[in-house]
Design a protein that fits this description.
Number of strands: 18
Largest sheet: 8 strands, mixed
CATH superfamily of the largest domain: Acetylglutamate kinase-like
Bound molecules: adenosine-5'-diphosphate, aspartic acid, magnesium ion
Strand order of the largest sheet: 3-6-2-1-9-11-12-10
Strand content: 25-35%
Order of helices and strands: EHEHHHEEEHEEEHEEHHEEEHEEHEHEEH
Radius of gyration: 22 Å
Distance between the termini: 40 Å
């Protein structure tokens, strides 16, 4: 008998029949004698709808009220799943973030979990009850509801699994595992049976939205065994049909490049006529950080005249209006500053632990893109990843070409 945390994403709870299907899976694990805590997302599309309600009132909405609105989707599905379990004779109770409580910091809209109180959850699980926890939400120190950023239910699930010391955290979704590329774009993508935390972390951080980045970070730190699997193919987590995310040391076979990832959630900002003197970057990125805006790629050129330079960086599309607003304030201190922005860019990345020991991996990427006539706007690298920013219209073409170029296509 094990303690398991099962997480069901938006498509898995999108309709009442889908929730009944989830209740069947949970009941099966209970019948096997396991203790089960479940974390649910909102019904597919609901969070998007709630976000658009907020932004239709104001693009620069108050993030505490945004959280009050968008957290509501998970409240509905947690209650509905508890009802569906009770109908099957399985004891179940729903828990909102504040009831557990899942305590976060106060960065509304992208809060980080600081701790999960487990006493009451353990009490519930020990009576044989299924704890159905609303994902994506927590409570700030001042008592207000927070949310964890888009895709945050994955992180709720891993945090609950770590706190309860669960044997495994099963992430049920609409694909049967982690693939070498998004299977919706590359139909020759292959399922990866085992992937290291490190590679999964890089894949998630550059756009493979199958797992939220923070959830992988937490799983790696707390050594939570993670499985990604489908809710729709009739298979049960305990039979281990999905992709296991685990320690690198436990994986024998390694490709040079394990995956190709893309993200359309990118916007590019270019600042021209910046004075080329110490302290300018801090003047720009300090206020952006204070507004909880994550800056991703950054490039700055060496100025030709040693007086003025250009700087380009990327943020998520959702953060672009706020970024431009913050830059308006900064511009007052930097006379002559010109701000340009565009949201029609996307980021394509290759990821693989093998990159550490092979040369020529990045150059093959650039050659492949050149052969397709795709212009690279920005490049960034890490030890096991190369990312390029390109025009959004080339996303699919780039991902498919790279997938073939690194020999990842399914036979
Ligand atoms: P959920 O609602 O269950 O959280 P998400 O939509 O957040 O599901 O994540 C699942 C989706 O992630 C898949 O439908 C797939 O299109 C996408 N995805 C992107 N990259 C990958 C990848 N490398 N492997 C598997 N799925 C991926
Ligand atoms: N419902 C939230 C979202 O759509 C959280 C999640 O699904 O993980 O972002
Ligand atoms: Mg998700």
């Amino acid at each position: 008998m094990a303690l398991l945390v099962l997480k069901f994403g938006g498509t898995s709870v999108a309709t009442i029949p889908a929730i009944e299907n989830v209740a069947n899976k949970v009941s099966q694990e209970i019948k096997l004698g396991h203790k089960v805590a479940v974390v649910v997302s909102a019904m597919a599309g609901v969070t998007n709808q709630l976000v658009s309600y907020c932004s239709s009132i104001s693009q620069l909405y108050d993030s505490k009220e945004y959280d009050a609105v968008v957290a509501s989707g998970e409240q509905v599905t947690s209650g509905l799943l508890a009802l569906a379990l009770q109908k099957r004779g399985v004891k179940a109770r729903s828990w909102q973030g504040w009831q557990v409580p899942i305590v976060t910091n106060d960065v509304h809209g992208k809060a980080r979990i600081k701790g999960v109180e487990t006493d009451t959850l353990h009490e519930s699980l020990n009576t044989g009850e299924v704890a159905v926890i609303a994902g994506f939400q927590g409570i700030a120190p001042d008592g207000r509801i927070t949310t964890l950023g888009r895709g945050g239910s994955d992180t709720s699930a891993v945090a609950v699994a770590a706190a309860l010391k669960a044997e495994r955290c099963d992430i049920y979704t609409d694909v049967d595992g982690v693939y070498t590329a998004d299977p919706r774009i590359v139909n020759r993508a292959k399922k990866i049976p085992r992937i290291s935390y490190e590679e999964m972390l890089e894949m998630a951080s550059v756009g493979a939205k199958v797992l939220q980045t923070r959830s992988v970070e937490l799983a790696m730190k707390e050594k939570v065994p993670l499985q990604v699997l489908s809710s729709f193919d009739g298979k049960l987590g305990s039979d281990l049909p999905g992709t296991m995310v685990m320690d690198e040391a436990e994986i024998v076979e390694q490709e040079v490049v394990s995956g190709v990832t893309h993200s359309r959630d990118e916007a590019k900002v270019t600042l021209r006529q910046l004075p080329d003197v110490p302290g300018v970057a801090a003047k720009i990125f300090g206020p952006l950080a204070d507004s909880a805006i994550n800056v991703d790629m950054i490039v700055q050129n060496v100025s030709a005249d040693k007086a003025k330079t250009d700087l380009t960086f990327t943020v998520t599309r959702a953060d672009l209006p706020k970024t431009l607003d913050v830059l308006k304030g900064v511009a007052a201190e930097l006379p002559g500053l010109q701000v340009e922005s565009s949201a029609d860019v996307s980021k394509v990345s290759i990821i693989g632990i093998g990159m550490r020991s092979y040369v020529g991996v990045a150059s093959r990427m650039f050659k492949t893109l050149a052969e397709k006539g795709i212009n690279i706007q920005v490049i960034t690298t890490s030890e096991i990843k190369v990312s390029v920013l390109i025009g959004e219209e080339y996303t699919e073409l780039a991902v498919r070409a790279l997938h073939s170029a690194y020999g990842l296509d399914q036979e």
